[in-house]
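Q: Hi! First time doing this. I have a protein sequence and I read that you can turn it into a structure. Is that right? Here it is:
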Amino acid sequence: MEYAKLIAVTGLPGLYELVSSRNDGAIVRSLDDNKTQFVASRVHNFSHLESIEVYTQRDNVNLVDVFHAMAKATDSLPDAKDNTAVTRYFEKVFPDMDFERVYASDQKKMVKWFEALKKHNVEIKLTEVPEEVEPVEEVKEPEPVSVQPKKKTSVKKKDK
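A: Yes, that's right. Below is the predicted 3D structure, encoded as structure tokens:
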């Protein structure tokens, strides 16, 4: 399972693998129970985990950066039901987070999602976009052209 295919669906708990997308929705597979279902885009919104950013005191960071900090932490994951424990955990693990704009419910989601990713051994990394290398044209300086004056030629008209 690839991190790039994982999405969060509004109104549905947990994470989902995007199996296929259609004009009117998507076919997704739950990481929790491995059930496949159709989810209508009229009712739900989809967020790729790769596109989710977290507010910090400086610039926003990608969710991957928070997950990497969580993976490096020696502290065990807190109980996702305890708001204060979750907030204290993130104060230790990712102190740069803007706790006024990242709500406790969002922090709980991050803990639950991280647990699910660890359980399914998903490698947490962003998809590398290959850089397009544009061919560089050599700019040649124009060679100096010597301009010679044109010779005047006289054309005689023949009389009939």
